[in-house]
Amino acid sequence: MHTDTKSLIFLILQILAVAFILATGPFFLQNIPFLLMQIIGLLLIFWALLAKKVNKPVHLPNAPKGSFLVMQGPYEIIRHPIYAGLLLIMAGFVEGYLSLPRFMAFAVILAVTILKIEHDEKILKETHHEYEKYQKHTYRFIPYLY
Q1: Separation in Å, CA 95 to CA 32, 92, 102, 121, 128
Q2: What CA dihedral angle connects 87, 104, 26 and 13, to 10 degrees?
Q3: Predicted structure pTM score
């Protein structure tokens, strides 16, 4: 399957599962621990986006035009902080109002995110020669575990 098509399918599955979770439960949680999970997830996403914005692109040989690696901010610890933030936010929604269908939708988000990360990392290894070195000292999205 073409890589752009695969990425698009992963994205559509993630969006559908997120939409299902948001549509089937309360949007504002009153449970403080789950609300804190969501706030931490949101802050992690903002930090990652800020790190992408602040860091200047380093033009790399053999990389597609306009692409660059960000290895500062949260990217010093985890390679996919935006996915980690999304998972924290969605876990807060699901755990705050738990049901089997919402849990299954979260399982879809988790599985698709893992598949998308593996797909993205394969492409990054092919286009950025220093990505393998970067992988050796960072975790995918759960520090000290994965």
Answers
A1: 12, 5, 9, 29, 38
A2: 60
A3: 0.83
